[in-house]
Structures are given as structure tokens and as C-alpha cells.
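Our collaborator T.R. sent over the components below with a one-line note: 'Predict the complex.' Nothing else. No constraints on interfaces, no templates requested, no preferences about which chain binds where. So this is a plain run: every listed entity goes in together, and whatever single assembly comes back becomes the starting point for the next discussion.
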Amino acid sequence: MIEKILIVDDSPVSRKIMKSCIPEDRGYDLFEAGDGQSGIDKYQELKPDLTFMDLTMPVMDGMQALQEIIRIDPQAVVVVCTADVQMKTIFKVMNLGALMVVRKPINKQTIDEAIQKAEDKLKNTQQ
Amino acid sequence: MDKFESIISNEELDILQEVMNIAFGKASADLAEVIDIYVVLSIPDIKLMKTAEVPGYIEAEIDDIENISIIKQSYTGKFHGTALLLFPGGAGKKLFSLFDNNGADVPEGEGLDVMGERESLLEVGNLLIRTSVSKVAELLDDVVSYRPSRIIVESKAGDIVDWDLAEPEGPAILMRTVFSFDKRDISGLLFLIPSYKSFDWLKKALHAFLQQYE
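Returned assembly:
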């Protein structure tokens, strides 16, 4: 079951939009990071159940951060959330171990579907 | 940036940056589909300056301003202004090689290479510029139309501002991203320069964009 969600995105507006699309009534604890390296640091500190990861970010981009998080924790559930929806990008991040890719601009429905998919993966992992 | 805060606030800049991020992402995905290439995008950024400073700023951004190809396109709507796509010298030939040009008609007196380069520049320019601008407009609940695009080869930077859409001493918002084509040694810069006449609308539209999530 998802309790902690980490949002990694350099844009404060994008993080605000993401938070508004995550259902408030489910009581998730939400955490934020503003670049890939901070995302890794927060991941290690918090061990979130689900991470939403942007790709184009300063300091360390989301592709590298995803790779590092999966190296640290092969069971990590990471949903890539990006405006870069080139097929090669999707192929790369899925190969790196992302659960799925959500295309920006996001909305409540796409984020709810991503959370549901993450819940399903966590259940399967626990069984 | 402080002196421009009355023109556009930091919060509005953040929203605009996110809108640009989505728009440039869509443009690169569309281009990647057309020419089967991986487009690497930089983080888009925004610069505020006097319009009269724009040519000098762009000139300083380009290593070889004497040998660049510029695709320039004006767009009109509530969101209106000028878009510029700048490629360093020689990019036209490299772009031409990305397209299948078999059977292209070449008017008399024009070499295939020149025509091909121009068409390739226009093709890439129209796609990147129109997809980006249309997506910005769509996200901000507007629809834009386009004037015919122009190619300016081996230009001086002073040619690039549409002075009928600008006021030299007035403010300019430069929305900029750098893109490159993976493994092809081609890179360029895309600038969107909204007219100062659309600033009031732009500010309201940016807040409306964010409000839909509040």
C-alpha cells in the first residue's frame, strides 16, 4: 500500500500541479525534490513507495536519477512524468526500470491511473 | 530580473517555463516521428530584456553569427510574436541528409542542393516552431495563425526582430531552448519572442492555466 510519494521535478509549478492531481483524501505523505541528485538523496532517506520523476532537470537529469534509484533499490516504483514523449525516450526509461511514462500536461485521471498501477505492482511484489 | 518584475512576476515566469517545457517536448516528439531521430532538448529558459537588446543577445549566443541559417516565423492570435530557429552554418546540408528527397522538383536555375537545404530548413523550422507555438497557445486556451516563414541565411542579428511587433525600448521576453540531434552533430536554438502587446493577455492566461489545478 502506498503511503509515501516523492515528486522529483525542477519546476515548482510542475510540483504544485502534481500535488493537486494526487487525491488528497487518501492521506499520502508527499515529499519533493528539485533535481535528480536531491531525488536520489531523498529516496535513500525516505524510501518512498512511489516516485514521480521528471526527466529534464539541472544537476542530474531524471534518466540518470532513475538509473541510480533502480541500482540502489531494484524494487523501486518510479513513474516518469515528462513532456519529452519521443518513442526512444519512452523505450530508454522503460528499459531502465520505470513502471510507466505519464505525458505532461498531467491531469487527475492519468495520475490516478499511475497510482493504481503502482499499487498493483506493490501488491504483486509483496505476494 | 528585478526591474522587470512589474512586467512579469517570478511566479508567472515559473508557469511560463513549465508551459514552454511541455510545448518544446511536444515539438521534439513530433519531429522525431517525422525524421526518425532522437532530439535532445536543454532545459528551456526565459530571459527578460529590452527589445533593442535582443539582437545583441542572440548574436552573443551564437558562435558563428555570419554563417547561420535562421527560420523566422511570426504568429498572431491573443498570443502573438516572432519565433526564430537558428542553425549554425552548414546545418542546412546536414538536415537535407535526414530527409528522403527523391523526386523533388527543382526550378530552373536553382541547384538541387540549395533547394534541398532550403526545403529541409523550412520543413524542420515549420515543424518545430509551429508545434511549439501552437502548443503554448493551446495550453493557454488560444489559437494562433502563422505568417509565411522566412529563411534568412548568413544574416546579421539585427534582421531578426519584427519591429512592427516590438518597441525598441519596451520589454522583451525571450523563451529559449537549445536542441541537438543525437549522433548527427546538428544543434540549434529556438526562441519565442512574444510581442509586448500580448503581455497583459499572457499574464492572465498563465494564471488561468495554473488555476485549473487549484
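Summary for T.R.: The beta strands of chain A are 4-8, 29-33, 50-53, 78-82, 100-103.
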